[in-house]
Amino acid sequence: MHEVAHAAACLIFGMPIVRMSLYNFFPSHGTMGFVNFAYRPGSIIHMIGRVVQGVAPLLLGGAITIWLLNLTHVAVFPERTVPGIFNWANQVGKQTIESAMAMALSTPAGALTAFFVVCVAIHAIPSRSDIRIGLSGLISAVVVVSLIVLGIDTLSKIVHPVSSLYPSKNGIMNTHVLPLLDRVLHWVAHWIHLGLFWALYGAVAVISLSISATAVFILIPAGTVLAFKWAYRGLANTYEEKSAISIVQLKQNMNSPVNEAPGSQNAQPTQESTEYAKAEDSTKAPPKP
Length: 289
What we know:
The structure is a single chain. The chain is mainly α. It has one domain. Helices cover about 70% and strands about 5% of the residues. The protein has 8 helices and 2 strands; from the N terminus they run αββααααααα. The chain has a two-stranded antiparallel sheet with strand order 1-2.
């Protein structure tokens, strides 16, 4: 899905694909897939295309997440304030996680669907190269889009006064051109606003689901395994220290002299007792001839 989104963005904006790999099972260069494309630096379309190409996996992942989790019926527009936007993002994250959990616990098919959505969300996060490519055309794209939005807003403000100047005229300008232009401007502004809303909604849903899934399926199991490893190493080190102390004590006991009890049969006569016996024998009278 990640590389398919990149390739689709290149085709939509007319940037020729030079080389691509959808998935590499044995990545030797650290990437699981790639899309190499060419573009013209001076082209406005390619400037916008680079921005869209950088965030294309996030947009496609958001669309799949919204569709499969059926989040369209719970989506609401945020308030146009900074606290309202933060509260809206928090609400979107909670709705996404709750919908995924409810689907996973419903039926086996729902569990497989939730697992697929989680996999899509994890792989929909843009990589560092995607962010770099997107930022390379971001400034120009922001300027162009701002000019387009400003032009649409200006034209929509001009059309109404012009059409109201001569309401009794039956010319083609008042009867066809200006009303058609007014409807087109409203239609374009409506769809731009709606597209930006769903793009932002999908991005927040994907990021929330990706962070939660990473914590549940990667961080917590990895932390548990590391905790068991540290506990095992601690117990092993303690056992080795106790074993070393026992061996040292055993060697010391083997090297210490053994004290026998007096009158023991295995007791060996000391040098003093031997000399005393010799002196005692020398005092005896010699035998008679």
